[in-house]
Write a structure and sequence with these properties.
The complex is a heterotrimer of chains A (about 350), B (about 280) and C (about 325).
Chain A (H helix, E strand, L loop, with lengths): L1 E6 H11 L4 E8 L2 E6 L18 H4 L3 E8 L11 E2 L7 E6 L1 H14 L7 H9 E6 L25 E6 L2 E6 L2 H10 L7 H17 L15 H5 L4 H5 L7 H5 L6 E8 L2 E8 L20 H20 L10 H5 L6 H10 L5
Parallel strand pairs in A: 2-6, 6-7, 7-8
Antiparallel strand pairs in A: 1-9, 2-3, 4-5, 4-11, 8-9, 10-11
Helix pairs in contact in A: 1-5
Chain B lengths: L7 E10 L6 E8 L2 H6 L7 E6 L3 E6 L10 E6 L3 H7 L6 E8 L5 H4 L3 E7 L4 H11 L10 E7 L8 H9 L4 E6 L10 E2 L2 H8 L7 E6 L2 H13 L7 E4 L15 E2 L2 E2 L6 E3 H5 L6
Parallel strand pairs in B: 7-8, 7-11, 8-9, 9-10, 11-12
Antiparallel strand pairs in B: 1-2, 1-6, 2-5, 3-4, 3-6, 12-15, 13-14
Helix pairs in contact in B: 6-7
Chain C lengths: L1 H16 L5 E7 L6 E6 L8 E2 L19 E5 L1 H12 L8 E5 L8 H5 L6 E7 L2 E6 L3 E5 L6 H4 L11 E2 L14 H7 L3 H11 L8 H5 L24 H14 L9 H5 L7 H15 L27
Parallel strand pairs in C: 1-4, 4-5, 5-9
Antiparallel strand pairs in C: 1-2, 1-3, 6-7, 7-8
The chains are: A alpha/beta (about 350), B alpha/beta (about 280), C alpha/beta (about 325).
Chain lengths: ~350, ~280, ~325
């Protein structure tokens, strides 16, 4: 494994050099908070940030994306025949992504990259992106990533993992994509492999010790779907919910989307937009029949999908990486950790 | 891999009004590119997304049968934005079809078996596809007895009427056509709801009999007890579910029920599978 | 604020025990600092779950709907005004709701407090009008009145206008010469700057609709953004669509908004959604002398016509 030491004085110069080949994305603070945004040429990523309100999923999976278009003008050749819309998937790098957000990409990939179908937009964007992660030395109070299969120094899904050592970054190169990116920045000061790995191990252990939040998930696999579905606590859990889409939009592992056609004069474009299972319209048939017409059904669906259906379907753990964003952002403080523990502890009363 | 969101371009070749109240029309589509027709090779029970640029897409069961070449047929009920637009389109208009999508009736399991087909209202589309498939000279010998119970509100609401009456005359298929009620004195078939006709006319279950049932939720709800009385067990009852869909390829998450995606793991499920899933359909 | 929680619990327990109401809607302690979660308490034993403090900024009138039975609601000044609006707009009958009024001394602006810290807040407590807030890196002692929610700063209806019982004594209402200095500031900008202000306001909007769903006024069975036949607004991130949603929603609330600030509190992106509605509240007061939700016998101005209504805008 290659390790590179980056003097922080060289960091800005290096990433600016990489802009020749890569479009950069990273955390940026504005008056509303910290968000992962495309970095304009004069904007630097805020590497000292703590938590971003939104996850990095919008880099691969933008909230609104053109997927197809065509002309409706019958005098034009190929009118009414939809083609793939032009998208820019030139190489890009996300700097300072949290390890749990990168792990989330791997979970989301199970949905978009399957044996039968590949979503070309998501897959092409994913292939074009280098994930340069920043280990979290001081996990926040809502970070429960270690109890759900990831952690503050987890390497899954990352191409480079950076450790912040005050004056320098120690970079662990995890993939050929990561190697190419480091080269594009001109970062070439090698660090001793054994020492570096040992340092990473220490940092990881320290960081994991600093995690104060956790959930219990050991019994979820053994329960049946119908058992949990019929549990008696859903009404109480759902009362406060206002069925907005906040939890689903800030969540790095939520991927549901809507497809909408829009026309402008003689141009027809098919878009896809993030959508939320919390919306009453989500399952509403054209006839008006709505299988999840009540709030309780929708709230239950969200937690069941994340903590049980996904677990059963893919056997890759639950569909949650413990980032805590939904806990922090939910307007009415519905806490997935509480619901998870309730589900885990649930035993059917006869 | 190909982009699964891009529809095959098709031209509307024929439009037939399928029911007396004009709420359903049968559309015949021809692929603009011959090779697309081959790529679209499908099995009875599957569906496709009919795609109208600038308007939207709708998931509709394929009514034509794999043994019918050169075109594909869909029967569409007018109920929303896209279906209304489609109903106003003309022969010669260009649009798109994505598919075939979903799984199909388990034809391999049904070989050498008796098949009972039960349909109601306009859910008969994929059942037509199935019947034409089974009756095809190349396929008929693969199946034993075929019984069909199909009902609608009135004679004018039955789909594919001419074909139904043709099949009724055949000796290699037992048709039990019924309507909820009619004033027509010349009506020679049954009068009564589907569940009751099933109970009276469908064959009793044995190890070698399967029932395929497709219809509005209320019909299915009342037909299940009739089938149970005749001895059909859960794994012998095959159903096709409907659900709100968008992508049709198992990615947008909209049709998710329990751990199934109706567009990809279904829409065909056995009653056994459905009973293990939350009732959110 | 602390003393009245005992009274709230006492009153609630009494109502539930006597079977006078099916449930009491109030706030429960949150699982994270500065948070409270709306709760429906159905048994006397559960009343201890109820809390009331300066972080109860959401509007509980949002949870009042056309049910069959009778319910009780813990209502601050603004909540009570929204209940009045619900009654005027036939969303609920007066007899169906038992209002436990809580004269309010203001709620805190969570976004403003969070902005004082680089990292996450891990503890929040209040004692009278002193707030003690800590993160891992820092602890600060703050005066509550320096960190009030925007709407609480200009509030002149802290006492519930409609109630069945009060949980504490009435508080003094503030007298302000100018109720809308924030609107004046925006009105004073030139056209370009004004446009920029609103463009900037919604630049991070994620169309989650938390603002709409937290608002007690937004109870339409199908919101205009969700209509499909015809479709009025696109559902994507197109700037025009995003702004249309906000402007049009504000207009749908014109003459009805009580400035409870639930929209701002609910927004995960910290957008000051009230910038859209405040101007309309000011117009409502200046043109029609109207403040929403004060009187169950009066209908809002956009609902009624009087011959003396201003008409100089009709050219």
């Amino acid at each position: 494994m290659k390790f590179i030491s980056i003097d922080k004085n060289d960091w800005t110069k290096g990433i600016d050099k990489s802009r020749e080949k890569y479009q950069l994305f990273g955390p940026v603070k504005d008056e509303n908070g910290c968000l992962i945004k495309k970095l304009d040429p004069d904007v630097q990523p805020d590497m000292g940030f703590h938590e971003s309100i939104m996850s990095a999923k919008s880099v691969i999976f933008p909230q609104t994306e053109k997927i197809l278009n065509t002309s409706l003008d019958e005098s034009i050749e190929n009118h009414h025949i939809m083609q793939r819309a032009k998208t820019d998937y030139s190489p890009r790098a996300v700097l300072g992504i949290r390890p749990y957000d990168a792990k989330a990409m791997e979970l989301v990939r199970l949905n978009f990259d399957t044996k039968e179908f590949k979503d070309p937009y998501w897959c092409d964007a994913y292939e074009a992106t280098v994930f340069v992660g920043l280990g979290i030395t001081k996990p926040g109070p809502f970070d429960f990533s270690t109890s759900v299969g990831t952690g503050p120094f987890c390497e899954e899904g990352l191409d480079i993992l950076l450790a912040d050592l005050d004056d320098t970054y120690l970079a662990k190169i995890l993939s050929p994509k990561g190697e190419a990116y480091a080269a594009a920045c001109g970062f070439d000061v090698m660090a001793d492999e054994k020492e570096s790995q040992a340092l990473f191990d220490i940092l990881r252990k320290e960081a994991e010790k600093n995690i104060t939040s956790s959930v219990e998930i050991d019994k979820l696999k053994g329960q049946t779907i119908l058992e949990l579905h019929e549990a008696d606590f859903w009404d109480d859990v759902a009362f406060a919910c206002i069925n907005c889409g906040t939890c689903t939009y800030v969540c790095p592992t939520c991927w549901c989307f809507d497809i909408q056609d829009e026309t402008k004069q003689k141009q027809a474009t098919r878009f896809r937009n993030w959508d939320t299972c919390m919306s009453p319209l989500f399952t509403r048939h054209a006839t008006g029949h709505n299988p999840r017409g009540t709030k309780v059904q929708r709230v239950r669906q969200r937690f069941m999908h994340k903590l049980k259906y996904f677990l059963d379907k893919y056997d890759q753990g639950i569909m949650c990486v413990g980032c805590g964003r939904c806990v922090k952002s939910c307007p009415v403080n519905i806490d997935i950790r509480e619901v998870c523990n309730m589900m885990n502890a649930y035993e059917k009363q006869d | 891999m190909e982009n699964p969101y891009i529809p095959y371009p098709v031209r509307i070749d024929d439009i037939e009004i399928a029911t007396e109240d004009k709420s359903l029309k049968t559309f015949k589509f021809v692929f603009l590119n011959k090779e697309d027709e081959e790529k679209f090779s499908y099995q009875a029970g599957q569906f496709a997304e009919l795609s109208i640029p600038g308007v939207g897409e709708i998931p509709i069961g394929i009514a034509s049968s794999p043994v019918e070449k050169g075109f594909v047929k869909f029967t569409v009920f007018r109920t929303g934005v896209v279906t209304s637009y489609l109903h106003n389109m003309k022969v010669g208009d260009i649009m798109g079809i994505r598919g075939p999508l979903g799984n199909w009736y388990p034809w391999d399991k049904l070989e050498n078996k008796n098949v009972v087909i039960i349909g109601g209202g306009f859910a008969f589309t994929t059942l037509r596809s199935s019947i034409v498939y089974m009756l095809d000279p190349g396929n008929r010998s693969k199946f034993k007895n075929i019984d069909v119970v199909y009902g609608a509100r009135s004679p004018g609401m039955l789909l594919y009427r001419e074909e139904l009456f043709e099949w009724e005359k055949r000796s290699d298929i037992n048709m039990h056509i019924t309507v909820d009620g009619t004033d027509d004195p010349n009506w020679k078939y049954h009068k009564g709801f589907v569940p009751q006709i099933v109970e009276q006319n469908a064959p009793k279950a044995d190890e070698d009999t399967y029932a395929i049932i497709c219809g509005p939720p209320i019909m299915i709800k009342f037909t299940q007890p009739s089938l149970a009385k005749l001895g059909y067990r859960e794994h012998q009852i095959i159903m096709s579910l409907e659900n709100r869909m968008k992508c049709g390829i198992g990615m947008c998450g909209r049709c998710n029920i329990g751990k199934e995606l109706v567009c990809k793991d279904g829409p065909v499920f056995t009653l056994e599978q459905i009973n293990q899933t939350p009732k959110e359909y | 604020m602390d003393t009245c929680i005992e009274k709230i619990r006492e009153l609630s327990a009494d109502l539930l025990e006597k079977g006078e109401v099916e449930k009491v809607i109030g706030f429960a302690k949150g699982t994270i600092p500065m948070a409270t979660s709306p709760i429906a308490v159905k048994t006397k034993q559960d009343v201890d779950k109820l809390v009331f403090n300066s972080t109860c900024g959401l509007n509980l009138a949002n949870y009042v709907s056309k049910g069959k039975g009778k319910i009780a609601v813990i209502a601050k000044g603004c909540d009570a005004r929204n209940i009045v609006t619900h009654i005027v707009e036939n969303q609920i009958q007066r007899e169906q709701i038992y209002i436990i009024g809580v004269p309010c001394t203001g709620m805190v602006d969570k976004h403003k407090i969070a902005a004082l810290f680089e990292d996450e807040i891990i503890e929040f407590s209040e004692d009278g009008d002193t707030l003690t807030v800590s993160s891992l890196l820092n602890t600060q002692t703050l005066k509550k009145y320096d960190y009030l929610k925007g709407n609480c700063l200009y509030c002149t209806h802290k006492n519930p206008v409609l109630y069945d019982v009060l949980a504490r004594d009435l508080v003094e209402e503030q007298k302000l010469d100018n109720l809308f200095p924030d609107v004046d500031r925006i009105e004073a900008l030139d056209e370009e700057a004004k446009w920029q202000h609103f463009e900037n306001l919604t630049k991070n909007c994620i169309r989650c609709y938390a603002c709409r769903n937290a608002c007690p006024l937004c109870y339409c069975p199908t919101c205009f953004v969700d209509e499909s036949s015809p479709q009025w607004v696109g559902k994507g991130q197109n700037k025009t669509d995003v702004n249309t949603f906000h402007f049009l929603r504000a207009f749908h609330c014109a003459g009805r908004c009580t400035d409870c600030g639930a929209c701002v509190e609910a927004c995960p992106m910290g957008i000051n959604v009230r910038d859209f509605t405040r101007k309309l509240n000011k117009d409502s007061l200046e043109l029609f002398g109207w403040e929403a939700g004060l009187d169950v016998t009066k209908r809002p101005p956009l609902d009624t016509y009087r011959p003396e209504d201003p008409d100089d805008f009709i050219k």
